[in-house]
Amino acid sequence: MDEMIPWFDDGLRFKCTGCGKCCTGSPGYVYLSPDDLERLAEHFSLSTEEFSTKYTHTVEGYQALLDHPDSPDCIFLKDNRCQAYQARPIQCQTFPWWIQNLRKPEDWQEAAEHCEGINHPDAPIVSSVEIQAKCATYLDNLIAQNFSF
Ligand code: SF4
Predict the structure, then answer these.
(1) 141 touches 33 (CB < 8 A)
(2) Which 3 state secondary structure label does DSSP give 56?
(3) How many helices (H) and strands (E) does the chain have?
(4) Which of 1, 4, 5, 15 has CA atoms 20 to 30 A from the CA of 78?
(5) Distance between CA atoms of 113 and 21, rounded to whole angstroms?
(6) Which pTM value belongs to this model?
Protein backbone atom coordinates (compact mmCIF):
# COMPACT_ATOMS: atom_id res chain seq x y z
CA MET A 1 0.00 0.00 0.00
CA ASP A 2 1.17 3.51 -0.71
CA GLU A 3 -0.32 5.11 2.39
CA MET A 4 0.88 4.45 5.93
CA ILE A 5 -2.76 3.96 6.98
CA PRO A 6 -4.80 2.27 4.25
CA TRP A 7 -8.31 3.44 3.42
CA PHE A 8 -9.56 0.04 4.68
CA ASP A 9 -8.03 0.45 8.12
CA ASP A 10 -11.35 -0.59 9.72
CA GLY A 11 -11.34 -3.81 7.67
CA LEU A 12 -13.51 -4.98 4.81
CA ARG A 13 -16.45 -7.32 4.61
CA PHE A 14 -15.96 -10.55 2.66
CA LYS A 15 -17.02 -14.16 2.81
CA CYS A 16 -16.98 -16.55 -0.13
CA THR A 17 -20.47 -17.88 -0.78
CA GLY A 18 -19.17 -20.61 -3.08
CA CYS A 19 -21.15 -19.27 -6.03
CA GLY A 20 -18.28 -20.25 -8.36
CA LYS A 21 -18.57 -17.10 -10.46
CA CYS A 22 -14.87 -16.27 -10.19
CA CYS A 23 -13.98 -19.68 -11.64
CA THR A 24 -16.31 -19.45 -14.62
CA GLY A 25 -17.05 -17.50 -17.75
CA SER A 26 -15.44 -14.16 -18.33
CA PRO A 27 -11.91 -13.73 -19.60
CA GLY A 28 -9.03 -13.96 -17.15
CA TYR A 29 -6.12 -16.25 -16.42
CA VAL A 30 -4.88 -18.07 -13.35
CA TYR A 31 -1.13 -17.59 -13.43
CA LEU A 32 1.10 -20.11 -11.68
CA SER A 33 4.29 -19.58 -9.72
CA PRO A 34 6.89 -22.36 -9.34
CA ASP A 35 5.45 -23.10 -5.87
CA ASP A 36 1.93 -23.32 -7.31
CA LEU A 37 3.15 -25.77 -9.94
CA GLU A 38 4.87 -28.00 -7.41
CA ARG A 39 1.88 -28.03 -5.06
CA LEU A 40 -0.64 -28.73 -7.82
CA ALA A 41 1.51 -31.41 -9.44
CA GLU A 42 1.83 -33.20 -6.11
CA HIS A 43 -1.94 -32.91 -5.56
CA PHE A 44 -2.54 -34.76 -8.84
CA SER A 45 0.39 -37.17 -8.29
CA LEU A 46 2.18 -35.85 -11.38
CA SER A 47 5.64 -34.46 -11.98
CA THR A 48 5.70 -30.70 -12.57
CA GLU A 49 6.52 -31.41 -16.23
CA GLU A 50 3.54 -33.75 -16.59
CA PHE A 51 1.26 -31.28 -14.83
CA SER A 52 2.47 -28.41 -17.01
CA THR A 53 1.87 -30.36 -20.20
CA LYS A 54 -1.59 -31.54 -19.17
CA TYR A 55 -3.04 -28.47 -17.46
CA THR A 56 -1.18 -25.31 -18.47
CA HIS A 57 -0.31 -23.09 -21.39
CA THR A 58 1.76 -19.98 -21.90
CA VAL A 59 0.08 -16.58 -21.98
CA GLU A 60 2.31 -13.68 -22.99
CA GLY A 61 5.32 -15.50 -21.56
CA TYR A 62 3.67 -16.56 -18.31
CA GLN A 63 2.42 -20.00 -17.32
CA ALA A 64 -1.33 -20.18 -16.73
CA LEU A 65 -3.99 -22.82 -16.16
CA LEU A 66 -5.94 -24.03 -19.15
CA ASP A 67 -9.67 -23.44 -19.40
CA HIS A 68 -12.06 -26.36 -19.42
CA PRO A 69 -12.05 -27.95 -22.92
CA ASP A 70 -15.78 -27.30 -23.42
CA SER A 71 -16.19 -23.90 -21.79
CA PRO A 72 -14.32 -20.83 -20.54
CA ASP A 73 -14.54 -22.21 -16.97
CA CYS A 74 -11.49 -23.25 -14.96
CA ILE A 75 -10.28 -26.71 -15.94
CA PHE A 76 -10.51 -27.83 -12.30
CA LEU A 77 -14.12 -26.80 -11.78
CA LYS A 78 -16.45 -29.78 -11.64
CA ASP A 79 -20.08 -29.65 -10.43
CA ASN A 80 -19.30 -26.14 -9.17
CA ARG A 81 -16.52 -27.53 -6.97
CA CYS A 82 -12.77 -26.94 -7.27
CA GLN A 83 -11.02 -30.29 -7.77
CA ALA A 84 -7.74 -28.76 -6.60
CA TYR A 85 -9.07 -26.74 -3.66
CA GLN A 86 -6.52 -27.95 -1.09
CA ALA A 87 -3.68 -27.12 -3.49
CA ARG A 88 -5.27 -24.21 -5.33
CA PRO A 89 -3.07 -21.47 -6.78
CA ILE A 90 -2.05 -18.51 -4.61
CA GLN A 91 -3.94 -16.25 -7.03
CA CYS A 92 -7.15 -18.07 -6.02
CA GLN A 93 -6.22 -18.32 -2.33
CA THR A 94 -5.67 -14.60 -2.03
CA PHE A 95 -8.78 -13.39 -3.88
CA PRO A 96 -10.21 -10.77 -3.40
CA TRP A 97 -7.18 -9.27 -1.62
CA TRP A 98 -5.42 -8.35 -4.86
CA ILE A 99 -3.64 -5.01 -5.09
CA GLN A 100 -5.81 -3.99 -8.04
CA ASN A 101 -8.91 -4.39 -5.84
CA LEU A 102 -7.48 -2.46 -2.91
CA ARG A 103 -5.88 0.69 -4.24
CA LYS A 104 -8.98 2.77 -3.57
CA PRO A 105 -12.60 2.28 -2.46
CA GLU A 106 -13.82 2.48 -6.05
CA ASP A 107 -11.66 -0.53 -6.98
CA TRP A 108 -13.19 -2.53 -4.15
CA GLN A 109 -16.71 -1.53 -5.25
CA GLU A 110 -15.93 -2.58 -8.80
CA ALA A 111 -14.67 -5.96 -7.60
CA ALA A 112 -17.93 -6.32 -5.65
CA GLU A 113 -19.85 -6.14 -8.91
CA HIS A 114 -18.30 -9.46 -9.92
CA CYS A 115 -18.22 -11.23 -6.54
CA GLU A 116 -21.28 -11.53 -4.31
CA GLY A 117 -19.11 -12.31 -1.26
CA ILE A 118 -17.59 -8.83 -1.25
CA ASN A 119 -19.55 -6.55 1.10
CA HIS A 120 -22.04 -9.37 1.67
CA PRO A 121 -24.23 -8.40 4.65
CA ASP A 122 -23.57 -11.75 6.36
CA ALA A 123 -19.81 -11.61 5.82
CA PRO A 124 -17.46 -10.97 8.73
CA ILE A 125 -15.14 -7.99 8.70
CA VAL A 126 -11.63 -9.04 7.71
CA SER A 127 -9.02 -6.96 9.51
CA SER A 128 -6.70 -4.56 7.77
CA VAL A 129 -3.71 -6.57 9.04
CA GLU A 130 -5.05 -9.77 7.50
CA ILE A 131 -5.92 -8.01 4.24
CA GLN A 132 -2.42 -6.57 3.92
CA ALA A 133 -0.83 -9.94 4.69
CA LYS A 134 -2.91 -11.63 1.96
CA CYS A 135 -2.13 -8.85 -0.49
CA ALA A 136 1.59 -9.23 0.27
CA THR A 137 1.33 -12.98 -0.43
CA TYR A 138 -0.40 -12.20 -3.73
CA LEU A 139 2.34 -9.75 -4.70
CA ASP A 140 5.16 -12.11 -3.66
CA ASN A 141 3.60 -14.79 -5.85
CA LEU A 142 3.60 -12.42 -8.84
CA ILE A 143 7.22 -11.50 -8.19
CA ALA A 144 8.08 -15.23 -8.14
CA GLN A 145 6.70 -15.35 -11.71
CA ASN A 146 8.80 -12.34 -12.74
CA PHE A 147 5.79 -10.13 -13.32
CA SER A 148 6.81 -6.50 -13.47
CA PHE A 149 4.71 -3.74 -11.92
S1 SF4 B 1 -17.25 -14.92 -6.99
FE2 SF4 B 1 -16.80 -14.41 -4.83
S3 SF4 B 1 -18.43 -15.41 -3.63
FE4 SF4 B 1 -18.41 -16.36 -5.70
S5 SF4 B 1 -17.03 -18.17 -5.51
FE6 SF4 B 1 -15.77 -16.45 -6.21
S7 SF4 B 1 -14.94 -15.54 -4.31
FE8 SF4 B 1 -16.67 -16.83 -3.71
Answers:
(1) yes
(2) strand
(3) 6, 6
(4) 15
(5) 11
(6) 0.92
pLDDT in tens, 107-134: 999 999 999 999 999 999 999 999 999 9
The CA 115 to ligand 1 mean position distance, Å, reads 5
Ligand 1 touching residue 117 (CB < 6 A): yes
Kindly give the distance from the C-alpha atom of residue 13 to the centroid of ligand 1, in angstroms, as a whole number.
Answer: 13
Q: How far is the CA of 89 from the centre of ligand 1 (A)?
A: 15
pLDDT beyond 60 at 3: no
Atom 8 of ligand 1: nearest residue by CA position: 16
Q: Is 28 in the pocket of ligand 1 (CB under 6 A)?
A: no
